[in-house]
Design goal:
Blueprint: H1 35-52, H2 61-74, E1 83-86, H3 92-99, E2 105-109, H4 112-124, E3 130-134, E4 147-153, H5 155-160, H6 166-180, E5 181-191, H7 196-202, E6 207-212, E7 217-220, E8 223-226, E9 229-235
Parallel strand pairs: 1-2, 1-4, 2-3, 4-5
Antiparallel strand pairs: 5-9, 6-9, 7-8
InterPro entries: Efm4/METTL10, Methyltranfer_dom, SAM-dependent_MTases_sf
GO biological process, one term: methylation
Enzyme class: transferase
Length: 236
């Protein structure tokens, strides 16, 4: 569930949609928050890969992947640390992690077509040390647990746009995260829908802010800000 943008400022597929919303959380419901949408997206991308070898888009661009891997290297995360990519989409980030030497990495997505696409791309890259699973993170299997690092690039954004009780789904996401992540484990989230302050509120129970990562800034009409938020939380 992580397909979309060609750079940090272009993550418009799941961009903030506020104002005039009938919901109390400030987001307008969108098809981008539904499983049907992502199933259709990855069915098309799978066909495109099979026909042309095109791996598809990278959510938030290549810089977002480099930013996260750079943080992991800076903090000397062991290469055998267990890493979970939540909503792995086409699995390109898993490929990058493997190329940097990480050897205990897992990608999950609730779209079977996404997992099939990821598998095809990983096979093409000649990699074999990556685990892939069809999993709904809001209702994860009991085997999905014990991770040192969990990573989200756009999945929490999409869940926030679900037309069917998104507020409750966000709460369930936090509960699932708490269950699969080890105590003192790290959660790295990149979002174009949520500000730093809002994410601090969303993940206030059981997590504390460890670090804010630098992201591109924009200036428009005399105002400036960040196009995306990238935070590292630690489970308490």
């Amino acid at each position: 569930m992580s397909e979309g943008a060609d750079d940090d400022g272009g993550a418009g597929a799941a961009a903030r949609s506020r104002g005039g919303s009938p919901r109390g959380d400030g987001f307008s419901p969108s098809a981008l928050g539904t499983r049907e949408h992502w199933d259709a997206v990855y069915e098309r991308e799978l066909q495109t890969f099979q026909e042309y070898g095109d791996t598809g888009e990278i959510w938030f661009g290549e810089e977002s992947m480099t930013r996260l891997i750079r943080w992991m290297q800076k903090h000397k995360i062991p290469l055998d640390a267990s890493v979970l990519d939540i909503g792995t989409g086409n699995g390109v980030f898993l490929v990058e992690l493997a190329k940097f030497g990480f050897s205990n990495i897992t990608g999950i997505d609730y779209s079977p077509s996404a997992i099939q696409l990821s598998g095809n791309i990983i096979e093409k890259e000649g990699l074999s040390n990556i685990k892939l699973k069809v999993e709904d993170f809001l209702n994860p299997s009991t085997k999905l647990s014990g991770f040192h690092i969990c990573i989200d690039k756009g999945t929490f954004d999409a869940i926030s746009l679900n037309p069917d009780n998104a507020i409750e789904k966000r709460k369930q996401y936090v509960k699932s995260l708490s269950r699969v992540l080890k105590v003192k484990g790290f959660f790295l989230i990149t979002s174009c829908n949520w500000t730093k302050e809002e994410l601090l509120n969303e993940f206030s129970e059981g997590f504390e802010l460890f670090e804010e990562l630098r992201t591109p800034r924009f200036s428009f009409g005399g105002r400036s800000g960040n196009s995306v938020a990238a935070l590292v939380f630690q489970k308490t």
